[in-house]
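Reminder to self: tokens first, then the designed residues, so the page reads top to bottom the way the pipeline ran.
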């Protein structure tokens, strides 16, 4: 019979501390609030949904961050952000190039947030790096492998700090999973199954009707939506990815699936509308989901929503769009040392979030994006983790399960102290996971495994 001591020293089992002690470490959550040596100033390009998410930190924790310049071609969004931060008229710009032009004699702020559409990430980032801005660049960082490499070369040349918006790395859930693997609570990592359930209505909203419906104009789905997931997988495995393979396509959202008699818009008296889960009237007017895209509050009159549906792509039939993004993708990934992962992106789910299954030589973790359970094979006991925010309500004000505000917290800390190591999603590591995404897309289109 094996002694207790030899159980403890199973070769894959971490630093020798018992499981309970190591597992307890996972509940240490970093508070959102930090103090900076001074109030850092921010210029914002793109005052849309993401452009408002990160500056919210400065409102929650006054004295840390202040927006002092904004560029948005939408006059209402520009005005709203300008007014919210008392930005002088001379610092309110239309096109992003005006903000760059105004900074030729010296940058306008300590940091720049680039929250423009996907096709406007690389060029502004290159221009801003050359002006010396430290940048928070929304994902996807660029539209091609070549652009990713250009960004990296420019960052190395200029020495500025660039954080990419891989918010999941900062969410307490994924931080706890990462720590669990570092502490070898599953022993030696062997395989991960990771799922991104996009959710049926979110798919219709963003990737069939919305901004990301055309993978050529923006980026392919595996980059546009799932670069987060490839990044998380690479981060958890903590090894280089060697080879990827991908399959998938459009199963539902195409003309041949349109119901008989369906007009081009849901608002044009579609006979199927009352039964269609993708009906724009149902999603926006009855359920009142995603109204932020119209800058409308949830309690606005129905007519205001219906007017938007009559005038924009958001009212069009999902079977008669110009979409080309796959609604399901299945990928396999091989990492150094033989560690494997499979990732699926699924439109047809009732909820969003992420689902994780992590297999190691001593244990198994199953998680749902908010909570997870470690099952050890030696003790045969389950160990449950769930997120208990240390500073009350404030984590709840952050999107991506706390990740949005935790990312800007770490970015501010890194800029304030000039300590690049505080930044988990720096440009270099993010280039690597973006390249995995572009390789997956090549594999999906060519039907072959792709070496990275
Ligand atoms: N990190 C994440 O989890 C996450 C989540 C959603 C979106 N994103 C990314 O963030 C970026 C922004 O997405 P969003 O949902 O905020 O989009 P959005 O449409 O709400 O905001 C983009 C803003 O850019 C403005 N704009 C467009 N062209 C411009 C120009 N030439 N000059 C100045 N302003 C211009 C638009 O008017 C708009 O207000 C996208 O690249 C998206 O992929 C990241």
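Designed residues (452 positions):
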């Amino acid at each position: 019979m094996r002694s207790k001591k030899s159980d403890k020293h199973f070769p894959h089992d971490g630093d020798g501390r018992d499981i309970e002690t190591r597992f307890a470490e996972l509940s240490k959550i970093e508070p959102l609030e930090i103090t900076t040596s001074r109030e850092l100033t921010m210029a914002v390009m793109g005052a849309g949904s993401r452009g408002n998410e990160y500056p919210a930190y400065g409102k929650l924790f006054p004295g840390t961050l202040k927006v002092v310049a904004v560029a948005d071609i939408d006059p209402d969004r520009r005005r709203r952000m300008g007014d919210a931060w008392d930005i002088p008229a001379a610092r309110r710009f239309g096109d992003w190039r005006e903000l760059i032009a105004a900074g030729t004699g010296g940058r306008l702020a300590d940091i720049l947030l680039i929250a423009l559409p996907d096709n406007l990430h690389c060029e502004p980032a290159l221009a801003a790096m050359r002006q010396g801005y430290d940048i928070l660049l929304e994902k996807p960082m660029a539209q091609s492998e070549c652009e990713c490499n250009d960004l990296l070369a420019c960052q190395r040349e200029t020495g500025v700090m660039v954080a990419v918006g891989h918010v999941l790395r900062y969410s307490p859930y994924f931080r706890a999973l990462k720590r669990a693997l570092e502490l070898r609570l599953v022993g030696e990592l062997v395989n991960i199954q990771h799922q991104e359930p996009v959710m049926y209505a979110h798919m219709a909203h963003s990737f069939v009707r919305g901004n990301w419906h055309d993978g050529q104009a923006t980026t392919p789905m595996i980059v546009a939506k799932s670069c987060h997931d490839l990044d998380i997988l690479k981060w958890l495995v903590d090894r280089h990815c060697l080879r990827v393979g991908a399959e998938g396509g459009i199963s539902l959202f195409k003309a041949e699936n349109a119901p008989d008699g369906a007009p081009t818009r849901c608002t044009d008296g579609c006979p199927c509308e009352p039964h269609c889960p993708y009906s724009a009237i149902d999603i926006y007017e009855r359920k009142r989901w995603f109204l932020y895209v119209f800058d409308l509050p949830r309690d606005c009159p129905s007519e205001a929503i219906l007017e938007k549906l009559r005038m924009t792509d958001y009212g069009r039939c999902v079977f008669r769009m110009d979409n080309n993004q796959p609604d399901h993708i299945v990928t396999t990934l091989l990492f150094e040392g033989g560690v494997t992962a499979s990732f699926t992106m699924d439109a047809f789910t009732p909820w969003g979030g992420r689902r994780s299954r992590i297999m190691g030589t001593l244990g198994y973790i199953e998680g749902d994006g908010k909570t997870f359970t470690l099952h050890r094979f030696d003790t045969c006991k389950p160990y449950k983790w769930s997120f208990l925010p240390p500073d009350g309500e404030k984590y709840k004000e952050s999107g991506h399960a706390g990740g949005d505000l935790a990312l800007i917290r770490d970015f501010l800390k890194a800029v304030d102290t000039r300590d690049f190591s505080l930044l988990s999603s720096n440009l270099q590591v993010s280039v690597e996971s973006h390249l995995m995404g572009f390789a997956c897309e090549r594999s999906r289109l060519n039907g072959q495994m792709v070496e990275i």
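The chain has three domains: 40-167, 168-254+323-392+426-451, 255-315.
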